[in-house]
Design a protein that fits this description.
Layout lengths: L6 H4 L3 E2 H14 L5 H13 L3 H5 L5 E2 L1 H15 L4 H5 L1 E4 L2 E4 L11 H16 L4 E6 L5 H9 L3 E7 L2 H13 L6 E5 L10 E6 L32 H9 L4 E10 L5 H6 L5 E7 L5 E7 L2
Parallel strand pairs: 5-6, 5-8, 6-7, 8-9
Antiparallel strand pairs: 1-2, 3-4, 9-11, 10-11
Length: about 290
């Protein structure tokens, strides 16, 4: 079914089934992965309903105004704008986060970083009050998740991007943890002298030689938050060489890394001991853990 309607037909209400079918056709034409799923997500967002509502309400109709909004969003998605930028939100660690163009979209793999940090806290530090540093906070997904999950904590979250910091503040307020987090504009680390029990970071780690081959929609995200320089390890190395001066004795660095970078971080000389790594569902070592003696 074409999305172009005659004037009379355009004013008629259309069913969810019709909208999903026509949206899927458009997205398939523009080579969008999982076109039907994308069409469903966009329609559910417009309706402010969960996805399962669409599956069980095929014959429900929507107004012409809502249909036009849906078509407008589909056209943006067909242009390979990430669906999260279109809806303005993303699910991360059981919570919804506001996301906007110019700020990195959280990935499911980063949930491994949060999970590992929580395990380390429960094993080694609980029930003490802890200070946490989130280096490169982006939309604040890691900082907010940890502040929400760990009752006795304070968090400092840094980012070089003022836009990212403003967005992370909104997410902290959204999840009612703004009193536990201090956001600071900084290139990686805050001022010298601060000490933390845990440093968590999801740094840029895509090799610069791979940037041009990334999916078109990924390249619509801020390259500064993706580009890790030659080998993807430029920022990782900076963090590893400075983190120990910001950690208390016995403190942890928990850092997300990219494909093939585990050997590099294991062998890099720094003021901490490599403790362990966590693999993602594809078997890639995705999170590296260090501890300061």
């Amino acid at each position: 079914m074409s999305l172009r309607q005659s004037p009379n037909r355009h004013r008629r209400k259309r069913s969810l089934k019709q909208l999903i079918e026509s949206g899927t056709v458009l997205l398939e034409k523009h080579k969008i992965d999982q076109p039907r799923r994308n069409a469903e997500i966009l329609l559910a967002h417009i309706l402010q309903k969960p996805l399962h509502h669409i599956y069980t309400s095929w014959e429900e109709t929507v107004s012409a105004d809502l249909a036009r909004t849906y078509v407008s969003m589909l056209k943006r998605r067909a242009a390979h704008v990430p669906v999260q930028y279109i809806t303005g939100e993303v699910d991360f660690f059981g919570r919804k986060f506001i996301v906007r163009k110019g700020v990195l979209i959280p990935r499911p793999e980063t949930e491994i970083l949060v999970e590992k940090t929580l395990k380390l806290y429960k094993k080694y530090l609980e029930p003490a009050r802890v200070k946490i540093l989130d280096v490169g906070t982006g939309c604040g997904n890691v900082a907010v998740s940890l502040a929400a999950e760990i009752e006795k904590c304070s968090v400092v979250a840094t980012d070089i991007s003022l836009k990212a910091l403003k967005l992370s503040c909104l997410n902290a307020v959204l999840h009612k943890v703004e009193k536990k987090i201090e956001f600071r504009q900084a290139n990686l680390f805050p001022a010298e002298g601060d000490k933390f029990h845990i440093i968590a970071s999801n740094p840029p780690y895509v090799p610069c030689s791979d940037i041009s081959s990334l999916d078109e929609e990924v390249r619509k995200e801020p390259l500064r938050a993706l580009n890790g320089g030659d080998g993807g390890t430029r920022v990782i190395e900076k963090i590893l060489k400075r983190a120990d001066s910001f950690l208390y004795a016995g403190g942890f660095l928990v850092m997300e890394i990219g494909y093939g970078q585990a050997e590099f971080v294991r062998n890099l000389h720094c003021g901490m001991k490599f403790l362990t790594s966590e693999k993602d569902l594809a078997g890639i070592e995705r999170v590296a853990v260090f501890r300061k003696a």
